[in-house]
Amino acid sequence: MSLPGEIALPDTTDRAKTPSPPSGLAWASLSVAIFSGWFVVTRLGLSQNLQVWDVIALRFGEGALFLTPTLLIGTSRLPLRAWPTGIPLAVLWGAPFIFFVGTGLRLTSAVLASSIAPALMPIFAGVFVWISRGQCPRWIEISGYALIMAGLVLLVWCSVPAEGQMNTMGILSLIVAAAMWGFYTLRLKASGLSPLQATALICFWSTVLYLPIYFGAGLSNLSRASAGELLFQSTYQGFLMSVVAVLAFNRAVATLGPRASSAIVALVPVAVVLFAIPVLNEFPSLIALASICGIAFGVMLTAAPEKPERY
Fold first, then answer.
1. HEC letters along 298-310
2. Residue range 250-266: average pLDDT?
3. pTM of the entire structure?
4. Domain locations along the chain
């Protein structure tokens, strides 16, 4: 169903076949796994030879090469007149979103960035649902949001070195990214696009609108990176993040709904902290462990089964 003023899109989402919640959880888990690694991988690239501009170019440029053909042929074929439907999605979860997250990563740390943006996103999504649809969150969802916030505050507090200070601009950038991500989940659900179509359009429009600026302004720093670094970053940014992770998250939204799927992504900071144990040999403190448990339990409450959404 299209919103007022939107182009009616062909029904390619197979709504007759209602996807099961377990499949939605599987897609959400896959996206969480890749998102978690992305914060570490991107932070690594930004600490070496790449800039945030390069990360954006790799992510969406390669994604467009992989996915644009799906808009022209096959079951996900989309009329050209409907392609502008993807512009708002590209603004919310395309190059601007990566710019804010990348800025936050550069000015803070992987742990802080992975804690703030994904954990605040479901809260913003819940607020936007409340404002736009008058659909007040249930008490169990509010309890989940409160636990996520409490766990987030503890986790961020534990992650800041005693002698250090949080970078205000970095924190604000991550908060803006979280708000954009939360609104994106609602816009995606109402767009009428299939998960694959939405993913392809995000990559296409991000590339069309961003690459001319990237090359025209001489922002590229790719020539300074080694072949190994470029191969690794292009594989993760261009394929795993732009194609696999975004498609998985879009399918999770289509299956579970914006509230539940966005809440599950709040597990990203938990996964990042746990990932640091075997890889970086960093063991969280007792307070950090308590915050992890709080976030996990809050996610469980927020992702509890909800009544079918009305449009």
1. HHHHHCCCCCCCC
2. 76
3. 0.81
4. 21-302
